[in-house]
């Protein structure tokens, strides 16, 4: 059985640090959200992040002593390319097509140096089904700036949600927010998943 912590939106890796027991990162909010455990050292760690994030080398260096893999790809609902609005480092970087409320005009990044560019993306549901078995223990953290609605919908529709044992999500006020009620109804009734919708 594999044990894996998959961090979608890994950035500098504070969620991984909290999972490993660091109670100081994020002012302690990450550690308070995560389920307490004694087996964190048995996990492998996989982080997804935009290839344009300027501090990826620092993230790799931070976790050089553990079983950590960095995948420089955006998490999405298909494999290929997608438009990403980014300045390369701030919290406001996001997929352009989820950068609005349903039917609204896409919001643009406030940094005047931000650009919209085509970057690689991965179908997270497909990737989970191809890389993990039902008996594996997978912890998934989703902090993907509004893309969480469609990604979660696809995880449920494809059955890839069956690979997840613990799920931590930050829901944003933009994107396809109307999907949230249906997603949450499913997750709150799925007894096998430890689910938190309050990732800080």
Overall description:
The structure is a single chain. The chain is α/β, with parallel strands linked by helices and 200 residues long. It has one domain: Rossmann fold (3-Layer(aba) Sandwich), CATH 3.40.50. The protein contains 6 helices and 10 strands; from the N terminus they run βααβαβββββαβαβαβ. The strands form 2 sheets. The chain has a 6-stranded parallel beta sheet with strand order 3-2-1-8-9-10. A 4-stranded mixed beta sheet has the order 4-7-5-6.
SSE layout and pairing:
Blueprint: E1 3-8, H1 14-19, H2 29-33, E2 44-48, H3 56-62, E3 68-71, E4 74-76, E5 80-86, E6 94-95, E7 115-123, H4 124-131, E8 137-142, H5 148-158, E9 166-169, H6 180-188, E10 194-196
Parallel strand pairs: 1-2, 1-8, 2-3, 4-7, 8-9, 9-10
Antiparallel strand pairs: 5-6, 5-7
Distance between the termini: 30 Å
CATH topology type: Rossmann fold
Multimeric organization = single chain
Q: Kindly state the mean pLDDT as a whole number?
A: 95
Amount of beta strand: 15-25%
Tell me how many strands there are: 10
CATH class: Alpha Beta
Q: Given the structure, what is the number of helices?
A: 6
How would you classify the helix and strand content by structural class? alpha/beta
Question: What's the gist of this structure?
Answer:
The chain is of the alpha/beta class and about 200 residues long. Helix content is about 25%, strand content about 25%. The protein has helices at about 15-20, 30-35, 55-60, 125-130, 150-160, 180-190, and strands at about 5-10, 45-50, 70, 75, 80-85, 95, 115-125, 135-140, 165-170, 195.
